[in-house]
Specification:
5-stranded antiparallel sheet, single chain, 9 helices, 15 strands
């Protein structure tokens, strides 16, 4: 009922009468009053005016099932949601929940991770109250060979969501969040998000896929060792953002991109949108794969999500994300 009351208050943008809340939710006025009181105690600014009802004035920046759900407009993605004040890793928890039978689209979030995961076994800094740490459980009926493309699907969805949020605040002056192939998002050429995809498969069957993403939202200052390469939405825009709202927006964009992906089981229908946000396009890149390192110019992606790189001899190589690391020739991007 808490989520439903918050949703109704947000949808109207003004006052909602106690009677309307009671009728919509089929509960007593006392039950509504108790929930409103609880929400106020948790930091929600809710005005109560006689003969007008309740009005949501402000909300705390919290990652809870109710707060995320009150922003959510999806059919499946995020409708099942589990939030932790602290956990080891949202990817680890999502995999555990997958084994317990949680449904496709389950969203796992945390205020803080103690063992945040990055690509290639690296750690992911996860201080509390600043960023989004979330993982989504997917149960697609696709070939295991196609699973790596879901990292790119999530990257596109999250970049679109971040850009929508920025444009709502800054309009035409909003800087663009772009994609650094295959699993990072960048803003002003610094990293704002990282994606990690893990899967459980048989020879020709996927049990489940967990796609995790960390997004730097309200961080004011990063540790010295990453301050030169990391950035947050707050640093770029000069204001704080609702992490729950951005999480919900990511789920909405992911649902749309995921359904498009399933139509062909490749990126052919998303390739144009992805290409517009790909920061690597036209830039020099250094491709580092086991036993082989070379430089070239990134041309974009193909419909399998591979990065096309024109090498110095003029040949074009399709680079598979699972095998290599790609960096800019003169820096991170």
């Amino acid at each position: 009922m808490r989520k439903e009351i918050l949703s109704m208050l947000r949808e109207t943008g003004g006052y909602v009468s106690g009677q309307e809340l009671c009728e919509r939710l089929q509960v007593s006025r006392t039950a509504v009053w108790k929930v409103i009181s609880q929400l106020k105690e948790e930091g929600y600014g809710i005005e109560a005016v006689k003969n007008r009802g309740y009005h949501l004035v402000s909300a705390p920046d919290v990652m809870t099932e109710e707060e995320i759900g009150s922003h959510l407009r999806t059919e499946k993605m995020g409708q099942s949601c589990v939030c932790f004040e602290e956990t080891d890793s949202t990817n680890t928890r999502a995999k555990q929940l997958a084994e317990e039978g949680m449904p496709h689209g389950t969203l796992v979030c945390a205020e803080r991770q103690t063992v945040g995961k990055g690509r290639r076994g690296k750690g992911w800094s996860s201080p509390p109250g600043e960023a989004i740490y979330m993982s989504v459980l997917l149960r697609p009926q696709i070939l295991p060979a196609h699973a790596s493309m879901l990292t790119l699907v999530m990257g596109l969805a999250a970049a679109q969501a971040c850009n929508e949020i920025l444009r709502e605040i800054l309009e035409d002056e909003a800087p663009a969040v772009q994609i650094k192939w295959p699993n990072d998002l960048v803003l002003k050429e610094r990293k704002i998000a990282g994606i990690l995809t893990e899967l459980s498969t048989e020879v020709d069957y996927i049990n489940h896929i967990v796609v995790g993403i960390g997004i730097n939202v309200n961080t004011e200052q990063f540790p010295e060792e990453i301050a030169g390469t990391a950035i947050s939405l707050y640093q770029a825009a000069g204001r704080k953002f609702s992490r729950a709202k951005l999480t919900a927006r990511c789920m909405e964009r992911l649902e749309a991109c995921y359904e498009t992906f399933l139509k062909t089981e490749d990126l052919s229908l998303l390739q144009e949108d992805y290409g517009r946000l790909l920061v690597n396009t036209g830039k020099g890149v250094r491709v580092m794969e086991p036993g082989n390192e070379y430089v070239g110019t990134a041309l974009g992606i193909n419909d399998r999500g591979e990065l096309l790189v024109r090498r110095e001899d003029g040949s074009v190589t399709a680079v598979y994300a699972g095998e290599v690391s790609v960096r800019g020739v003169y820096g991170y991007v």
